[in-house]
Amino acid sequence: MLKSVTDADFVSHVNVRGVTVAEFGAPWCPPCKTLLPILEELSDEYGEAVTILKIDVDESPSVAAEYGIMSMPTVIAFKDAQPVEKLVGLRPKEVYKNIISRYLS
What we know:
Elements: E1 3-5, H1 10-13, E2 19-25, H2 30-46, E3 50-56, H3 61-66, E4 74-79, E5 82-88, H4 93-104
Parallel strand pairs: 1-3, 2-3
Antiparallel strand pairs: 2-4, 4-5
């Protein structure tokens, strides 16, 4: 299940050990709406191994600015709390799976 986070609790949800995927979007963004079911599927597939976060940039402008979010959706993969990949725009599910797999090992 995706966790919705805000400026206030974003840092506490990024895994210190392991992989976190953060999706920066907004409810009014059509590609973001398309991406959310893909991320839900990945969350189900990977379970506890990966944390997937959802950030509404309108409600959390500080964390969006901190990571230089200019367009949506933007997905940032974190390994041990460090950003390692940044994807701007909607991508096929396989692209997200490949990134998660790369950092899980």
